[in-house]
Structures are given as C-alpha cells and as structure tokens.
Design brief:
The longest helix has 16 residues. This protein has two domains: 99 residues, no CATH class; 184 residues, Gcn5-related N-acetyltransferase (GNAT) (Aminopeptidase, 3-Layer(aba) Sandwich). The protein is of the alpha+beta class and 291 residues long. It contains five helices and 16 strands.
C-alpha cells in the first residue's frame, strides 16, 4: 500500500515531502513532490507517474541559519524566504552554489538606505504630519501615536512578506538624519514583481535626493534581489513625480482615466514599469561599447 506523509506546506515554502511507491518489480522508490497529492481531484492526473524528482530541486545552505534547504528549479536565481528561519534570501542559480543574503543596508553618494527603527519617529513625524505629503496620494497626516504604531508593525515585515510594504529609510550619510523612505510591496505568490513608492521630506525636495534614492532602489530590485518587474504609479497632475519616474528610466505603460477618488475628486493614474532585462541590458551594452 502506498503511503503519503502529508506535511503542512506554506504557500511559498520549498519544503519537500517524499512519496514512497512500489514499481513493477515490487521495489520501493522515493520521489519528491511539492504540495502535491497524487490522484487528488485537483492533481490533473490519474496515476502516480508525474512526479517531481530530487533532480528538480536546488539544495543549498541558508546563509542566515545555516540549515540545508531546497527549492524547485523554477525558483533559481530568485528572491525567496528560508522555510527554517524565514529570512529573505536569493536562491543560487545552480546546485552547489551558495545562497545569498539580501544586501541591506546599502548606500549611494549621499544616502544610506536602511530599515526604519524606533529612533526615526521624530523625522518620520516631520514627513508624515505634513499635509503636502498627501496632496497627490491617499491617506491623511499622521500623529505621533500613529507613527509609533507604524514603526512597531513595520519591524515585523520582511522583504518577502507578500502584499505588505517593506520600508527603507532614506538617511543622510552625513549626520544620519532621516529625510524620507522608500516602500517596496512584492506581489504574491511568486515574489518576482514589486511596486515602489518614494516619500521625501519637503525641505529636501528639488535637490536630487529622490532620483538618487529611486535609482538605488531599482538597482537593489534588479541586481541584488533579482526581481523580474518593478512598477510605480502617480497622479497625472503630479508633474514632479512624472519627471522623477521618467528620469529614473521607467517606461510609461498607460493611464487610467478617473479611476481614483482623491480628496473628493476623480483623478487619473499614470502607470510606469521596468523589466530586469530593460535595466541590465543597456548597462551591458554601454560597457561593451567602451571596451
């Protein structure tokens, strides 16, 4: 009799379960599956032949907890979450290679991009209590209590937490003052696409900080975490945001007409995006032309 050991498989988890079945010679063979039950109503087959084998997985060591983990080959060279310690990591491209940590924090010429912390509440309050911050976005100014609740909640969000904003503080390298933050919201279930937002203290606008931060975030998304696609949106009336997104190299994909009610008024939304090959190939072509 065939026996199936059923495990609770998280939606993104690479934990494998082994199916033992008998072949024609009466020998028992072990094969690996990922969240699959043979002959189930949703399996799409009526026998136990379409199995995911051990060769269909990449085995490596988590760079954080040092436990051995495995992911299906389809997740190679992509951002995933360790099923043991739940840290975000990049799956190696080939078996035998090391898993890679997420490169956080990182910096630009003038900025350090890092996770937000409790000590940032005053600088965040300066940004989020300003009504001008919400002129072209939904929401309303925040008070000290709301900022503290936000920081407490944000501490539990990881980059691989789907459909939750992962915030990166934009701090001046000289002096350490927080002047804004970037938000990254990865889409479930594949974690290959992200939506990006940038918020900047009004006192530091029109000095190139937003463009510097956005370019660094795009580099982080495409080169470090190997995302496939990054999107951004803005109110069509927000000329500064339009200029920022286009200067950063994002492509305008379309405009939704009167799709959003903002402060009691129907407004248009502009949609921008970039693909990893669009971001990396021009740089490679430029480098090749210089050699």
């Amino acid at each position: 009799m065939e026996r199936l050991l059923a495990l609770s498989i998280p939606p993104l988890g690479p934990i494998r379960r082994r199916v033992f079945s008998r072949n024609g010679q009466g020998k028992t063979k072990g094969q690996f599956r990922l969240g699959y039950c043979p002959n189930s109503p949703d399996s799409g087959d009526t026998n136990d032949t379409a199995m995911i084998t051990e060769e269909d997985f990449i085995d490596f060591t988590c760079p954080y907890c040092r436990d051995a983990v495995s992911f299906p080959m389809q997740h190679r060279d992509s951002l995933q979450q360790c099923p043991m310690c739940f840290e975000s990591l990049v799956v190696p491209e080939k078996p035998g290679e090391a898993g890679r940590k997420i490169a956080l924090p990182f910096s630009t010429e003038r900025l350090a991009l890092r996770r937000l912390g409790p000590a940032d509440w005053q600088d965040l309050l300066d940004i989020m209590s300003d009504e001008e911050t919400f002129r072209y976005t939904s929401g309303h100014p925040l008070d000290e209590e709301a900022i503290l609740r936000w920081l407490e909640s944000d501490a539990h969000v990881k980059l691989t937490t789907p459909d939750q904003p992962f915030c990166l503080g934009l701090a001046l390298r000289e002096g350490g003052k927080l002047i804004g933050y970037a938000g990254l919201r990865l889409s479930a279930p594949d974690l290959l696409q992200a939506h990006v937002t940038i918020h900047l203290n009004r006192a530091f606008q029109k000095q190139g900080f937003a463009l510097e931060a956005l370019k660094a975030v795009l580099r982080f998304c495409f080169q470090d975490t190997r995302l496939h696609r990054v999107t951004a949106t803005c109110d069509s009336r927000n000329s500064a945001a339009v200029k920022l997104l286009e200067k950063a190299g994002l492509r305008r994909e379309g405009e939704f007409v009167k799709d959003n009610i903002l402060h009691g008024e129907w407004t248009n939304t502009l949609c921008y995006a970039a693909l990893r090959e669009e971001y990396t190939e021009p740089a490679a072509a430029q480098q090749a032309s210089q050699t």
